[in-house]
Amino acid sequence: xxxxxxxxxxxxxxxxxxxxxxxxxxxxxxxxxxxxxxxxxxxxxxxxxxxxxxxxxxxxxxxxxxxxxxxxxxxxxxxxxxxxxxxxxxxxxxxxxxxxxxxxxxxxxxxxxxxxxxxxxxxxxxxxxxxxxxxxxxxxxxxxxxxxxxxxxxxxxxxxxxxxxxxxxxxxxxxxxxxxxxxxxxxxxxxxxxxxxxxxxxxxxxxxxxxxxxxxxxxxxxxxxxxxxxxxxxxxxxxxxxxxxxxxxxxxxxxxxxxxxxxxxxxxxxxxxxxxxxxxxxxxxxxxxxxxxxxxxxxxxxxxxxxxxxxxxxxx
Length: 316
Hints:
This protein has 9 helices and 13 strands.
């Protein structure tokens, strides 16, 4: 059985303390509103439900320290009302616009720019905000920008969480600072936490690509999932964002990515008989196992995706 975790980072960017500006930002980045409709998390929830799939929405919660609980409560209600899982996401950028910064004036883009005690305090702030909005069963975390380090894992364990999914091999040269003895292909228990890496594959020699909706084609996604199942992997983690079906300006949907998401949902909806099922972290049962062999794609799929991405850019 391959457990597929469709994860959606659900966030909007720091816009100071202006609530009206924040509402506009929220409408574009999370609701995905545009002139002719909406292609944000509401659209994603409907598509997942139409195919009987489970989604995991990592909802950013640190913004509540700046803007209050209005946006978090609304998002939580949408996700849980749709039958999907809420887990914790934090973007430390919000500390930079926090009046009365409790971290001694320290700011940073990533969790790993703060020490373990500060990180634990941020996580507790996020958990408290979730509890105020009715979510008291958080078990999993993803750092904004994948910007975690080993101190993040220790802080998560201190706060009682079970899973982290911040490890993204494609971001190890930039924001992600989770250093292990070898590249992670599959989940490992370390520092009191199960690290469940974002699934990746090699699309050309010396290069890996994460399983992110806007970054890979449907043919690549389906091939990787089938390969993972045959190889006996326990999990596959896919990444999306609340705004990922939109063009970068958030003014209209990107038809290439919208179609890709629809194809993925259709495939997964029919893959249960093949032993490929979508699941939330709350239902995940892991056991220690050797690291799996890397998954490799082929030149035909890579070339086809490059053409598809070029078409997508025409809509930007």
